[in-house]
Amino acid sequence: MQALASLYSANASLIKPINKKGKTDYLVSVPCTCEDIDNGTVGYFHDTPYTVKAGDTAGNITSFLFSGQAYNISEKLMAGVAIIVHLPCGCYSALAAGQSQLVTYTVQQGDTLSTIADLFDSDVNSIRMMNTRLTVDPEFLSPGWVLFVPMGMKQNNNQEQGERSKKTGFALEISIPIIILVIGGLILFFYWKHKSGQSVEDPKELKDRSISKIGSHGSKFSHKDSTKDLLPYESERPLIFSLEELEEATANFDETRKIGSGGYGCVYFGMLGKQEVAVKKMKSNKSKEFFAELKILCKVHHINVVELIGYTSGDDHLYLVYEYVQNGSLSEHLHDPLLHGHQALSWNARAQIALDAARGIEYIHDHTKARYVHRDIKTSNILLDNGLRAKIADFGLAKLVERTGEDDCFATRLVGTPGYLPPESVCELQMTTKTDVFAFGVVLAELITGYRALFRDSKEANKMRSLISIMKGIFQDEDPEAALEAIIDGNLKGRDLLLLLPSRSYSLSAFLFRLGIVGDTEEKMPELQLGAHTIRSHGTKVARFHMHDWIILLLLIVIDVVLNVIEPFHRFVGKDMMTDLRYPMKSNTVPFWAVPLYAILLPLAIFSAIYFRRRNVYDLHHAILGLLFSVLLTAVLTDAIKDAVGRPRPDFFWRCFPDGKDVYDNFTTSVMCHGEKSVIKEGHKSFPSGHSSWSFAGLGFLAWYLAGKIKAFDRRGHVAKLCIVFLPLLAAALVATSRVDDYWHHWQDVFAGGLLGLVVASFCYLQFFPPPYDMDGWGPHAYFQVLADTNTAQVSATTNPLHLRQSEMETVYASTEQHNDLIVRDTNRILDALEAGRRH
């Protein structure tokens, strides 16, 4: 023992015997210092003097006296000369906190990493980390190799695992209750929606309910013939409300509930139970219009005529309650639609609206017991439901006409809206069904051109021009098609439009028939306006259908948390690599906590703003779902690649050696870091850039979404739209650039991260939405599927929604050279063919 202490220049009391396979070896504790030995080699060594004996060689001294651990003994030895033997030591600072002993061990025959670890109460992974030569083949050991073995690492690892488990447990203590609360909240929400859905009052029961007697209100009507006028309506059992009910339904006729106004009064949105209604509040001097609507709408029941639910009177006002038609008037969709929160109507949608309006007008003309003339057909009196199907409204000026051989009836006063009145009505006060047909022709012209019926002359600002005068000029032009094409609404796509243009020989029915053929044989669905599917009406259905998608999102969150907790792969970092890894450590220009703000919360705010304007839960839900999938999938892919690649960051030198004193393995020149473990761990996560991938995943999805909403690819060359689309991408690019400027990433890391995020965002967007350049690119796939299913069900359930009579003749107004001839033709076969075409 004393001889061993003398050989190693050690304290004999610090030498401990160890038993290895029945053979006694010794563990010699010696002090080590960092020194510069010959040839400029810097490292940790223990120096011991040795007097050369006769016959000694460098190999003998190294292999037999010092177990192969002597470093670089000179071959030129002389007996009796004292030399200094350098014995390599491992770097203490590279060990875990609290580690104080590192064994320099020579591999012997039959050794494995496991047996060596057991011998010194060490850990296999710790041995691998201390000896970079083992990274090539960790299971291969060659006798004579010198390894650095950290002693007592099992105990230290147990402590670290305990601390880590505490941290993990703490994280789980926080995350698990949050997840449980979220899931519980979703379950309670769905349960509440389900129960509230069951409690909705049956509309049929609501309609059969009798609230009060009309006699209590009759005395308040100003006209003496009120009782007479009410008799036909009473026989149809209308719903009579109390004034208190309507006040409660409309929040006491709050101004925020007002959805329309005119000379008759105002229209308010209301809720009667769970039913949405529109309440028209009329002035008491409008009782004539009030009774006109009562008499007609209680007898007219058609899918293209607005439905009257009930009425009441009181407080010097008269009230009519209608079904609520969600998408407002046709006028709002044709004239400055964006100002009213609507998308411009597509050609197919306009064709369908024209057909619906024509059927509604035809019904009140020819398929009711009494024939009625509306007398105020215009775009503001054509309402659109959630599928952009048209309904004729406002029958306050409607008049009963006799079914006689007389073509003309005469009115005592001129009624209607300027721009929609035919010359005969203006000059001769004529009132026939042809009056409505003429006004409908103006509506058709508005659908094609987007102009108003009356508009200010561009040449003479103090004069007004009528759309009819423009259309007459077109038909008299040498090239009517070219003239009409020049004033077509700029929002129309123009496909097959010229095939639909009516020549002078076409009757209105023939023109409508051609509209119907093209509109109903289109391969794709008509572009319909979002707006009627709210969270309240459809939220439960949408969320329940996509419940599995939300569960997958929760799993992605868990996976990403695990990927951030585990230790990344530590790629070999040598001394000669430090030139590219010596950039200074800087703080983040864009902190990590800011990334979710602009990559997730900002798009969510934009989605919500669009929802509150258009009220479509399908668009909101799928936008949120697509965004979250884009960000979370990108996060999982990014963190998985980071852990697998383990590329060092540009500032890795200062993470590894915060004091600037770099230390390397003597044999492999691998770094021997002595910085903070968490900082070093983060230093091995350079590729790809997480900030870049997250930014392009969230803002890239937003760019796709905006491109679809503003129709950036409508082939009209609006540069402003491109600027809006590229703005989120510019923000993402600036964030990515800051990662290179901060020396947190190499440029390749940023490029790969941005590309990864943009690709994932594109796939996720196209999973839920059509491409922005598609004609249906403004809405989600699910919305069009719902509309298709609804239309299929309606067609299957209704074989003859118009109740057409086989012998009816229609009188239509057709444009001729004199513009006032009438053509009488049988249109029932055309309409029947049209209905058959729609069914097939």
TrEMBL record:
It is a single-pass membrane protein; Multi-pass membrane protein. InterPro entries: CERK1/LYK3-like, Kinase-like_dom_sf, LysM, LysM_dom_sf, PAP2/HPO, PAP2/HPO_sf, Prot_kinase_dom, Protein_kinase_ATP_BS. The keyword Translocase does not apply. It is found in: Cell membrane; Membrane. CDD domains: LysM, PAP2_containing_1_like. Residues 103-149 form the LysM domain. Belongs to the PA-phosphatase related phosphoesterase family. This is Uncharacterized protein. The lineage of its organism: Eukaryota, Viridiplantae, Streptophyta, Embryophyta, Tracheophyta.
